[in-house]
Amino acid sequence: MKQGVPTKGSKMKRSLFILSVFWFVAGFAGAEVINVADHGIVPGKDVSLEANRLIESLIGKKDVTLYFPKGRYEFRPENALEKYRAVTNHDNSLKRMAFPIFGMEGLTLDGGGSTFVFHGRLCPITLEGSTGVTLKNFTIDWDTPFHHELKVVERDESNNSFVAEISPMKYGFDIKGSELWLGHYSWQDQLGQNIAYDPDTGAPYWQTKRYALKRKSHKAKKVGENRVELKDATKVAPPVGAVLCTYGNGPTNRLAQAIHIDRSKDTYIENVTVHTGGGMALIAERAENVHLNGFIVTAAEGRILATRADATHFLGCKGLIKLENCRLEHMADDGINVHGAYIKINEYKGSNTFLCAISHRQQMGLVFAEPGDRVMITSRETVLPIYETTVTDVKVLDEEQLLITVAEVPESLPKGLLSMENLTWYPDVVMKNNIIRNNRARSALISTKGKVLIEGNVFSSQMHGILIEGDNKSWYESGGVRDVTINNNTFENIGYGTGEGYPLYASPMLSDEQRLGDDQYHRNIRFTNNRLKSYNGLLAHAKSVKGLVLTGNIIELNKTYPTGSEQPAIDLDYCKDVTIEDNLFNGFIWPIRVEQKDSSNVKMKNNKGIE
């Protein structure tokens, strides 16, 4: 080949480069790009007021990009906009906001690889009533997290006591009487909700409840500048090196979520990392089309816990919820939760109007329905549907109560306690190529009537892997599923918190006063071609499911945790039309069983390693 003569391949590469540059330039051609430094937003000082003023100046404009030169930007609550905010699955309150993005269209927030550092109970990003917003290329962190990490440095099993180093120490700690109080930006927390992490695995301990901190019965004594001795604080004194993460108690430990999407459409989040938060990393309600690509929730260097609650949570959304190439780890709750809400029907007022009430205190202020939405009247006893109709009017009386008028009602209202769910606001879900691991609780909770595809992910959680639930007794999360495919995923050591977790657990949550009805609650769940690295040999628990397919799964013995289980590998209760085929259980030396109760049309074929 002669020097300087381009090959066919090099010509193609050059053409692709020119084309990519063209599209990059074209993408900005119709948009105004604002360098935030020109508006006083620079590293090294509190820029909350400047950020608020810049956002306010953009009201009425479209297709604007806010660009941050790479740096560390500081945000404090004292000069930030304050408004009363109802945030689902959090605690409502007056909230200070760094980026209040209200009523925007086509706004792009490009951090340029920057880190945004927040102080105190300040909410970083709030989207409301906005369309086409893009968030990309930045990291959210706080100067000190909303939890404390107590690292065990000494242990006395005979005395059930231990000595721990407390981090962070920026705001100190106090001993009041014999109780430990931990300092934050402008408040203190008692020992509250907590979990113990194993520093060797970066995950909660095997059967971690042994080391759960007791808020009231402990006896604390200061034994050094950043050390405290705790006696009778746990059931068993935790091992040296254990990290006990405590994050306060409700209703004050979910006041500052990192990203809140509210009544917005077409939100795209790319290359964004969240290290901590006083609530969830991302909470979306009544949002349409949310796409996360490369969204990361993980503990910052030097910490073991990330957010105080879920990594991502979606309530009453529609369109498509898509997660791809995300890594969600170290959070103190679930990786993702998608669901609707059951609200209580307290009284029929005549004229097709019902007096209703929000069912859970952390859903107060929820926009449950608007005219045109399809809703279902359901039995609160069986959690099954009764009558579908259309909303014609909604009158909000307060955060809890609302009057809902519908187009038609049954000729005779059914007896017994009733609820209502919104059928219009259920999204489709696509999860591809994500990693969810090393967190308290589950990898994914899916309760939506939309089409769901979960494919090519890696899950490793302290409780069940994928929980398909729905309940009208606790969190009042609605959504009996209708079309779920869980294919070609890897599940690693699911349920190590108790040793009893299933990779797939599908069942409505019922109280003692509730019962199974005449039909199944969930439908059409396919769990296929997944690989399970398992210490307990468990595959699936299904209750009140019609149309369950368990095929082509490989379950291999893994000895990371104590092996063995007395539970059935597949547990069926009140299920119908079940196919269990071509599954392989490999390496297990105890009986691998399938148990059936009140189930019909169960077909089993070509399974290996099952009794």
TrEMBL record:
InterPro entries with a match to the protein in the record: Beta-barrel_GLAA-B_I (IPR057275), Beta-barrel_GLAA-B_II (IPR056441), Beta_helix (IPR039448), PbH1 (IPR006626), Pectin_lyas_fold (IPR012334), Pectin_lyase_fold/virulence (IPR011050)
Chain ranges of the GLAA-B beta-barrel domain: 149-244, 354-414
GO MF: alpha-galactosidase activity
Keywords: Glycosidase, Hydrolase, Repeat, Signal
Pfam families: Beta-barrel_GLAA-B_I, Beta-barrel_GLAA-B_II, Beta_helix
Domain Right handed beta helix residues, every copy: 429-607
Catalytic activity: Hydrolysis of terminal, non-reducing alpha-D-galactose residues in alpha-D-galactosides, including galactose oligosaccharides, galactomannans and galactolipids; Hydrolysis of terminal, non-reducing branched (1->3)-alpha-D-galactosidic residues, producing free D-galactose
Protein name: Alpha-1,3-galactosidase B
